[in-house]
Amino acid sequence: MNTTIGILGGMGPLATVDFVKKIIDQTAASRDQDHLPLLIHSVPQIPDRTACLMDNRESPLAALTQGLNTLVAGGAGCIAIPCNTAHYWHPALAEASPVPILHIARACAEQLSAQGVTRVGLMATDGTLKAGFYTQELAHYGIDLIEHAAMLQQRIMEGIYCVKSGALEQGAIILEDCLQRMLASGVERVILGCTEIPLALDSINSSLSRHGIDATGVLAKACVDWYQINHQTQDVAA
Question: What is the distance of C-alpha 47 from the center of its chain?
Answer without folding.
Answer: 17
